[in-house]
Design goal:
Elements lengths: L1 H18 L8 H11 L2 E7 L5 H11 L2 H10 E7 L10 H14 L7 E5 L5 E5 L6 H11 L3
Parallel strand pairs: 1-2
Antiparallel strand pairs: 1-3, 3-4
Length: about 150
């Protein structure tokens, strides 16, 4: 009986993870494939989650809001490319290599935060960053980039 409960829990977790768009994709290929299948755009977010003040503000004041999450679930596949500095937040070597390769391709200047909006073929549609505006205004700005 306990194994059945454990399997049910794992199954529910898989469903929740696969159905939510705000969980970051682990790499660009997966994000592009999901964007293509769901007719969405990729929101490529370069962040320093534990040291970059603007990155933290972007996440707290816009990306973590219900308004933005709802919009993202409908229109975006979010790919977080994080570069934490604190030892406790250190990423795996594999994920670090993936993030560095994405930065070499899309964020050569190493600017944080940098948000790129891509179509499902990896074409850059536009670039933005943290803006001290409301989530609604940020969504309107994103819509103008993706021509929504």
């Amino acid at each position: 009986m306990r194994k059945i409960a454990q399997l049910a829990f794992v199954f529910v977790c898989i469903i929740v993870i696969s159905s939510t768009n705000t969980i970051a994709q682990s790499n660009l290929d997966e994000a592009l494939q999901k964007a293509k299948m769901e007719n969405k755009h990729v929101f490529l977010n370069f962040s320093g989650s534990d040291w970059c003040r603007s990155c933290i503000l972007l996440k707290k004041t816009i990306l973590d809001t219900e308004e933005f999450k709802k919009f993202a679930d409908e229109k975006l596949v979010i790919l977080d490319v994080d570069f934490p500095r604190l030892k406790k937040n250190k990423l795996s070597k594999e994920q670090t290599a993936i993030n560095e390769a994405l930065a070499a391709r899309y964020n050569k200047k190493g600017q944080f935060p940098t948000v790129l909006l891509l179509d499902s073929n990896a074409k850059v549609l536009g670039k933005t960053a943290y803006k001290k505006i409301s989530p609604e205004a940020y969504i309107k700005h994103i819509k103008s980039i993706i021509k929504e």
